[in-house]
């Protein structure tokens, strides 16, 4: 893996971390449920990154779309 790609992945994972750690569980109960599982953070991180990349949308938009699908 190239250094630039590795840096980009690290930055994306940090952005996901910031978004998920500041997520309001009342507004996003489906995502909050997954985050409360033993492996939930890693699962949600992967879901979020895959959804955003596949649909070519922002991470914030991916959170909203995933919540709608989970609810």
Overall geometric form: globular
Mean pLDDT figure: 93
- Number of E-type strands: 0
- Structure annotation, total helices: 4
Poorly predicted segments: none
Helix/sheet category: mainly alpha
Give your account of this protein's structure.
- The chain has 71 residues and is an all-alpha fold.
- Helix content is 76%, strand content 0%.
- It has 4 helices and no strands.
- It starts with a helix and ends with a helix.
Topology:
Blueprint: H1 3-21, H2 29-35, H3 40-55, H4 59-70
Helix pairs in contact: 1-3, 2-3, 3-4
Brief synopsis:
By secondary structure, the protein is mostly helical.
Q: Key terms for this structure?
A:
71 residues; 4 helices; 76% helix; single chain
């Amino acid at each position: 893996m190239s250094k630039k790609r590795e840096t980009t992945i690290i930055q994306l994972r940090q952005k996901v971390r910031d978004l998920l750690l500041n997520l309001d569980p009342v507004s996003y109960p489906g995502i909050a449920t997954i985050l409360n599982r033993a492996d939930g953070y890693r699962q949600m991180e992967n879901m979020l990154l895959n959804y955003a990349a596949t649909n070519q949308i922002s991470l914030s938009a991916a959170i909203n779309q995933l919540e709608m699908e989970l609810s």
